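Much of our argument rests on the idea that a fold can be written as discrete symbols. The amino acid sequence and the backbone structure tokens for this protein are reproduced below:

___
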Amino acid sequence: MAGDFLRIERLTKRYGPTVALDDLSASLQPGLIGLVGANGAGKTTLFRLLLGLTKATSGHVEIDGTDVALDPIAVRRRLGYMPEHDCLPLDQSAADVVSTFAELGGLPARVARQRASDVLDLVGLDEARFRAIGTFSTGMRQRAKLAQAIVGDPVLVLLDEPTAGLDPGGREEMLDLVSRLATFGISVVMSTHLLDDVARVCDQVVMIDAGRLVVAGPTAALLARTGRLVLDVGPDTSTLIAALGARGLGAREVDHLVEVDDDGDATVDQVLEVIVGLSLPLYRLASGASSLDDVFLDHAAAAR
């Protein structure tokens, strides 16, 4: 489709008899993109192809109109990359490392130093920028890796498991940083096996399994209604379930809540009428929505 920011067309990569990616196609717009799959699904191979570090067996990738295979250097000038593993020199300060990456991106030394300071401030490392990276906590090292990935002002940054090894607080802080990148005009492909992280920050998602595409598209469109109402009426669930059943409505208890098969507004009206008739409290009434876990499992099963 013309105008797509990231186009992946029938991409296949084989390593001898092993098929790492199998006829993968997706068209994505600028924004925050989640790349989801279990370990070994092909996420790392796709990153290597996006970076032009390996060649596809067949198919091709375009980033913002440039074919990666035809001009990998031009593409890499416009990309940032945050690896999953520790990759920064532990005996150097964050300021020195990040400013070096800025210089490698083409900035004069003085400008690179100021740019590094600004980016380290953005990721919350301003006060620690002159400390050796080897003295950093896991969360600080992740932030330093993010800083070097964005210091060159890329149009797209590839984040490989950016929340790996972080405690819940650090994970939330990292996801907040990732979500802020879009406000600076930086698109993101975030590789992860944590579907909650994708649901939290990504507006598009690509799911792969064993090298094959499971599903791709806007996150909100994939999180469709499941056809269930979820009700919290306190402990007296059995009375409500029996009364709904008498009206021909399918209802069941799930984790101390009542789930009701939802056929539309008429179902909601009947449920409310029953609750009022029984004088039950209503603490919550919500339309159940599928989770990304549901989407992945359903589409992966269909693909097989």
